[in-house]
Amino acid sequence: MKFSGKNVLITGASKGIGASIAKVLAGFGLKVWINYRSKPELADALKNELVKNGTNAAVICFDASNELEFSAGIKAIIESDGELSYLVNNAGITNDNLALRMSLDDFNKVVNTNLDSAFLGSKEAFKVMSKKRFGAVVNIASIVGEMGNAGQVNYSASKGGMIAMTKSFAKEAASRNIRYNCVAPGFIKSDMTEGLSEEVKKSYEENIPLKRFAEPEEVANVVAFLLSDYASYITGDTIKINGGLYM
């Protein structure tokens, strides 16, 4: 894939899908900024792995849902590299419960954290990318933001809101040649899904037309495509990565 930009910031990149995105993008020659909020040992281990493989990476710590911290993080990247070409808003949280048992605080915490982080990143990226009239942002949404899910009223609302917000940013930023898109993953192999019993995993897989969970790299490859020059005429879209579970 071809990339006209030089670097990328990935929030919540120290593990899971974020770490896979970092590895794929580093493999395409981008300098990868690995953001984390806690557990620096995971972020440092990922950076060391990337550097050992001959790619360029740096670690940056800030809370993606905090406006002052996100702004300071972007400023540090600009001071180091002189630009920010790409952003992946991956940071997010869950706190599942049935709606009737979910408190307003539990609802707001997930919605606010997930939407605030994506909004702040999208806004700060807009500011710095406008100066050179180039850039691309990918927001990591979810299948539940499109189809809903029992026990995830708060998470579904946050991801559905993210999809709508991305469309609005895409319309505002298009005149500056800045693109905004989403990916909406379904069931992905992760620490969480690996903890499920074989019986439960099999029942989930039976409902997926492709009959399997996705590898994290399959999400990362789509993210890379959307950031790349190959997707230069795609903006405001949401790409489903769910094996046909929701079409």
What can you see in these coordinates?
The protein has 247 residues and is of the alpha/beta class. The protein has one domain: 3-Layer(aba) Sandwich (Rossmann fold), CATH 3.40.50. It is 47% helix and 15% strand. The chain has 9 helices and 7 strands; from the N terminus they run βαβαβαβαβααβαααβ. Helix 1 packs across helix 9. The radius of gyration is 17 Å and the shape is globular.
Topology, pairings included?
Elements: E1 7-10, H1 16-27, E2 31-36, H2 40-52, E3 57-61, H3 67-81, E4 86-89, H4 104-130, E5 135-140, H5 144-147, H6 153-173, E6 178-185, H7 191-194, H8 198-206, H9 216-227, E7 238-241
Parallel strand pairs: 1-2, 1-4, 2-3, 4-5, 5-6, 6-7
Helix pairs in contact: 1-9, 3-4, 4-6
Q: How would you characterize the largest beta sheet?
A: 7 strands, parallel
> Main sheet: which strands, in order across?
3-2-1-4-5-6-7
CATH class annotation: Alpha Beta
| Shape call | globular
Which percent range describes the beta-strand content?
Answer: 5-15%
List the helices and strands in order. Answer: EHEHEHEHEHHEHHHE
Features:
Rossmann fold; 247 residues; alpha/beta
Q: Can I get a quick summary?
A:
This protein is of the alpha/beta class and 247 residues long. The protein contains nine helices and seven strands; from the N terminus they run E-H-E-H-E-H-E-H-E-H-H-E-H-H-H-E.
